[in-house]
Amino acid sequence: MINAVGREIPEEILKETGKQAFQGAYAFDGYEYRKGAPKVRPENDPQRSKLVEDIHEALVKCGIRDGMTLSFHHHFREGDYVLNMVMEEVHKMGVRDITICASSLGKANDPIVPYIEDGTVTISRVNGSITYPCSVMLVAPMNPCPCGYFGPPTRVCPCSSKSVSRYLSRVSGPLLDRIDLCVEMDPISFNELHGTGQGESSAQLRAQVLAARAVQTQRFAALGYTGVHCNAQLAAGQVRQVCRLTPGAQQVLRSAYTRLGLSARSHDRLLRVARTIADLAGTELIEQEALLEALQYRMQDKLEVR
Q: Given CB 3.0 to 4.6 Å as the disulfide criterion, which of 60, 149, 162, 168 pairs with 155?
């Protein structure tokens, strides 16, 4: 049998599965489909085209607004340029707080990195446009391998080393280089789950963060920095002035810079994280322990080790 797009479908397969060959986008099979709660019938209007002029019109018809999630699937190995075009249009439209749900972010998606780092959002209207400051926090969960069981000894991972490497390489280097904190979450053991010990409460952690922020505010005011509210906002020249290290930490940084092949951007991001760790510990200089902890949070190096 020949289907609506001209492909031959073996009759024995249709009989075996009880299926019908594809009859076209507007073919009506007489069935009702349940979506959520109400029963709906598929649209059957050949006179109404589903095509739109451009991505902007598609986003408008989808009801794009602040805080929405945009899902992208069926990517090619190195990423999908459609994601880039959509995010470029979202940026132009001034839509904020968008969550990107993508099956992968490959090398082809590097152009979206400036939208993460830009720090501004432009609202365009008929009478003109205006640009507002916009702080972006990128949070991205990731499995260690295709099956998700690589690493911890609680489950056997059937993935080969080649498939693990291929899976991890789906995230591009430039994007990884901009992730400051990477924390591996191991499964919780039974004893930990039923233990009586208690960790720090949210109130205690909040107090530590506020104390560190107060130290940073005083430091920035003393140095005459304007528009800087936390260590993450320090410019390259300010990093050199604020992130002062002990001799031991200086030696560790020199060794890491050479052995890991850090870029200038990676070097500065590492120092900002180490400065924050030192502020939480209440130390004036960045000590060796703070720098080593900051190095452990680098995701790029963890993936290369594997």
A: 149
